[in-house]
Amino acid sequence: MTDVVRTPAEFRRACEDARAARHRVGLVPTMGALHEGHFSLIDQAKARADYIALTIFVNPLQFGPGEDLDRYPRTFESDVEGCRKRGVDLIFAPNPDAMYPAGFQTEVSIKNVTQPLEGEFRPSHFDGVTTVVAKLFNLTGPCTAMFGRKDYQQWKVLSRMALDLDMPIEVLGCPIIREPDGLALSSRNRYLNARDRDRAVAIVTGLRAAHDAWLEGERDPGRLGKLAGDPVHRQFDRIDYVAAVDPETLLAPEGRPEALLIAAAAHLGETRLIDNVLLGGDPRP
Ligand code: AMP
Fold this sequence. Notes:
- There is one protein chain.
- By secondary structure, this protein is an alpha/beta fold.
- The protein contains 10 helices and 9 strands.
- The strands form 2 sheets. Strands 1-4-3-2-5-6 form a 6-stranded parallel beta sheet, sandwiched between helices. A 3-stranded antiparallel beta sheet has the order 7-8-9, covered by helices on one side.
- β2 (25-30), α2 and β3 (51-56) form a beta-alpha-beta unit.
- α6 crosses α7.
- The structure holds adenosine monophosphate.
């Protein structure tokens, strides 16, 4: 049975009761509009925990001015149904007022790892993410929390936060789930019209080109970044970044890299897509 709760107090209580009954809590934070990427996090959580809590909250704090907060897809009924089928025990779906009551004035902010890549193009985004996830971690209590490596930087930022603040949370990064043609699943893919859906594949075409070159021995970050960027430049309307960076610092690597993250963010019309591959870690996307 899947319970649905709306208030922080009910959510905390349910997680405490689960632990009191000797369950290990697995936490899956989402913004809803669930797809197979989210469901894979549920499956990974079930491999490590036996009480699965999924949160659905379109967090206004992490959207910048002019971003898609108002039109972000909301599909609550089918999300609940999907969670029920996948064996989620608890859904926490608060209203913004419950998370940020009148007078709220606290921000959790992580320094270095938030600055490059997404940080350059979405300046207050990670402060919104870390603030809401700190609240979710505090409400949940000791647990294993699953995040997708599709949002690679987010995973690194949240791992850093849990470590720095001694939160009793095991933060795990899970593999990217893709469509048959390679496009990473995203709630935002449903914004794409047929033409843009075709063009979107260029982002994974670029990641594959870099992955192939890496396997052939290429280690120059500039050349790998260019190989990844070329198809995106040809098909996308606007590019925020296509970069080859150190997988830990997310800055330009020093010396000959043993692994490299190729990360990309680009726009098709009004839709912004992100993707990445870890060279020296991930299989060919
Ligand atoms: P979102 O609802 O977009 O905020 O995503 C919630 C969680 O699902 C985040 O940890 C994402 O990284 C993860 N996620 C989203 N898309 C995918 C995907 N295609 N593969 C794996 N994880 C994903």
